[in-house]
From TrEMBL:
The lineage of its organism: Bacteria, Pseudomonadati, Pseudomonadota, Betaproteobacteria, Burkholderiales. It comes from Bordetella genomosp. 1. This is Uncharacterized protein.
């Protein structure tokens, strides 16, 4: 159980992450959504490449949290564990190892891309649209 001060920071980080995600997704049409998805994927790829190269030139952790949240929410693949990880990543006052998170971030990206593949399959049933209602996915 986090200390009360840490819990307050996590609560503020959660609210901030959802507010930024809501703001970024609220202005989308189909083309803008696709562009934003690719930008988020690109930022995650840059992060994963930097970690693999043991570079100290890593993307901003709040930008990384938003990019991961964007992929997971739009593909409806976010889990409670993902949200907890992203809220912690977004809380800059709490210590998080960006290098240790790489496998988790890579798995989040792969799950989002798998969700995209499912959406793209014509035999997968009715087309799903990206989530824009921002209801908690769990």
């Amino acid at each position: 159980m986090p200390k009360p001060a840490d819990q307050a920071q996590l609560n503020a980080s959660n609210a901030d992450l959802w507010a930024r995600l809501t703001d970024s997704l609220s202005h989308y049409d189909g083309e803008a959504a696709a562009d934003s998805f690719m930008e988020a994927e690109g930022l995650i790829d840059t992060y994963l490449e930097a970690v693999a190269a043991q570079s100290t030139n890593l993307p901003d952790r709040q930008a990384l949290a938003l990019a991961c949240a964007h992929l997971l929410v739009t593909m409806r693949t976010m889990t409670e564990d993902d949200l907890a990880t992203l809220v912690r990543l977004n809380a800059t006052s709490l210590g998080v190892s960006l290098y240790a998170l790489a496998p988790t971030v890579a798995e989040m990206k792969q799950r989002a891309l798998a969700g995209l593949q499912v959406m793209a399959q014509p035999h997968a049933g009715p087309a799903r649209t990206p989530s824009v209602d921002f209801d908690s996915p769990f």
